[in-house]
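Input record, target 12 of the design panel.
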């Protein structure tokens, strides 16, 4: 092959003049493929017409010039690499002496006006070697595949467009499916909600912000005696007792502000005029945009529960009353004991006054008056005990007034110490300076304190260290706590178990009836409080009682 292009061999068959000579140059130049012949220095040494046409060049302008001067890369195309790839392929051909087929290259061509036109080429570089095997020429054959590439590109674009359409359709389908699912779920929710409303035991009533009934479930029909058809569209105030019409206004204005009205008890009226006691809660209904468009009310008829509660209260009151009478019976027995002390003390004072009068002189008269005052105080106390016993047996309601507990306790301590053997007893009081006022029957509470103090003082007779601490403080919200603490021997287990029961006593016959603590408990309980005893750390007992700060109703 290489020999064909040797200048000497070009005139094949020159020794046969009869045969017309093949003009290889004309043949080459006219051949329809695109051919360029390069020397090893990559100068253009031959080019055919088709190549010139395709690259918009003229043979005489390019022959002899370096390939890459004639065909540089398009300077406006930053990614242009046609020249570089071609140079690499030609170098491989020179080095290896083997043909090199290149992938399709984008290699723009320059028009005579100097503009570059987009072109795509499929090049093949073929070496022609001399008899020594050295590459003498490189035939650079290219095919202009611009049309093909562009068609491919157009086809790719169509394929891409179709794909993106398919993707968009798929996406839309998916969204549709999800929306369907969501709709289904909403529909399911709506149905189950509707079922809940329908089968609810509680009346559920919907109303508009203007107070018209918008829905009325079967439980509401049963509770109020209206059918849904007859009440929907009517003002919800049809269900209100006349004295509670204001309530609806306040409910509507609170709901309009978005408030939820927690369960409360109130009254409503049935179609037949009968009132029902209901527990009621109201919450706003919002539109899908969040605007408040109405309210839903849930009502439960608690008339029966209320009546049962009332019966129970009546019963309890009855029992309390009876137990008071019982207690009164027992108290009659202890009355002697309770009265014994102040009367005996009073008597002592009178006797002392008598004795003092026998040796009457001006100075002793003062003393006599003092003794008589003390006797009078004891007699007044005895009177108070009797009055209180009357109160207690329910002949009249007790006198509850708001009292300052520290004053009440101070007085009770003074009373408790009278006539008791208080020798060696060290009393200290600790009263919280911010004690709230408590609604109490002063005499009753003082009776409790006197009793507890006397017990404490008596218990401490048997011990050396006799410390009595009385304190009052605010405790759990709503209560005050009173503590009476002694250093006596503590409660024996038998007493401890039955402490507040009647006839529990360890005192010698005649000095104790075992009624005091039981009465204390009755009094504290009737005040809505609680009393209990606890041993304290070393030795001794602390009695505690709490009293509510807010009033409890008077016992009947
Ligand atoms: P009484 O004083 O008539 O015995 P109470 O009901 O007041 O009746 O007391 C019952 C018993 O509880 C007393 O006999 C005593 O044994 C015991 N007790 C009460 N207070 C104390 C106390 N602070 N320390 C030890 N024992 C006590």
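The sequence produced for target 12 reads:
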């Amino acid at each position: 092959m290489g020999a064909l292009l040797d200048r000497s061999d070009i005139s094949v068959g020159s020794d046969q003049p009869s045969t017309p000579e093949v003009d290889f140059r004309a043949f080459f130049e006219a051949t329809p493929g695109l051919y360029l012949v390069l020397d090893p220095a990559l100068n253009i040494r031959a080019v055919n017409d088709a190549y010139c046409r395709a690259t918009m060049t003229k043979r005489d302008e390019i022959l002899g010039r370096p390939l890459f001067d004639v065909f540089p890369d398009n300077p406006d195309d930053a990614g242009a690499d046609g020249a570089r790839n071609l140079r690499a392929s030609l170098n491989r051909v020179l080095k290896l002496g083997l043909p090199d087929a290149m992938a399709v290259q984008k290699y723009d061509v320059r028009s005579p006006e100097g503009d570059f036109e987009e072109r795509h080429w499929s090049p093949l570089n073929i070496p022609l070697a001399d008899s020594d095997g050295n590459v003498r020429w490189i035939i650079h054959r290219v095919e202009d595949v611009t049309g093909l590439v562009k068609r491919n590109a157009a086809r790719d674009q169509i394929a891409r467009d179709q794909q993106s359409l398919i993707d968009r359709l798929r996406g839309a389908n998916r969204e549709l499916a999800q929306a369907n699912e969501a709709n289904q779920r909403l529909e399911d929710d709506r149905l189950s909600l509707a079922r809940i409303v329908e089968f609810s035991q509680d009346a559920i009533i919907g109303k508009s912000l203007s107070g018209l009934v918008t829905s009325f479930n079967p439980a509401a029909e049963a509770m109020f005696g209206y059918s849904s058809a007859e009440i929907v569209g009517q003002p919800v105030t049809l269900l209100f007792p006349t004295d509670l019409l204001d309530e609806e206004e306040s409910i509507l204005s609170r709901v309009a502000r978005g408030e939820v009205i927690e369960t409360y008890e109130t009254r409503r009226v049935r179609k037949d005029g009968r009132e029902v006691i209901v527990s009621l809660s109201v919450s706003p209904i919002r539109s899908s945009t969040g605007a408040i468009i109405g309210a839903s009310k849930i009502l439960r008829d608690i008339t029966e529960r209320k009546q049962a509660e009332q019966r129970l209260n009546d019963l309890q009151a009855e029992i309390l009353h009876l137990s008071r009478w019982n207690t009164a019976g027992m108290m009659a027995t202890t009355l002697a004991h309770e009265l014994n002390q102040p009367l005996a003390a009073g008597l002592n004072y009178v006797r002392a006054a008598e004795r003092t009068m026998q040796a009457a002189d001006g100075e002793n008269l003062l003393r006599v008056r003092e003794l008589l005052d003390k006797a009078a105080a004891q007699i007044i106390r005895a009177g108070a005990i009797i009055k209180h016993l009357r109160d207690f047996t329910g002949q009249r309601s007790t006198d509850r007034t708001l009292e300052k507990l520290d004053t009440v306790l101070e007085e009770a301590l003074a009373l408790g110490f009278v006539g008791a053997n208080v020798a060696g007893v060290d009393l200290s009081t600790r009263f919280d300076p911010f004690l709230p006022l408590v609604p109490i029957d002063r005499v009753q509470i003082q009776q409790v304190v006197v009793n507890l103090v006397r017990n404490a003082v008596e218990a401490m007779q048997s011990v050396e260290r006799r410390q009595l601490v009385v304190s009052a403080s605010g405790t759990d919200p709503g209560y005050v706590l009173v503590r009476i603490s002694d250093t006596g021997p503590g409660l024996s287990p038998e007493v401890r178990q039955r402490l507040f029961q009647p006839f529990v006593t360890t005192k010698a016959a005649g000095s104790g009836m075992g009624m005091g603590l039981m009465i204390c408990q009755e009094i504290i309980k009737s005040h809505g409080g609680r009393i209990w005893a606890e041993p304290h750390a070393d030795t001794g007992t602390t009695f505690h009682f709490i009293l509510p700060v807010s009033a409890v109703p008077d016992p009947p």
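The domain at 203-301 is CATH 3.30.450.20 (Beta-Lactamase).
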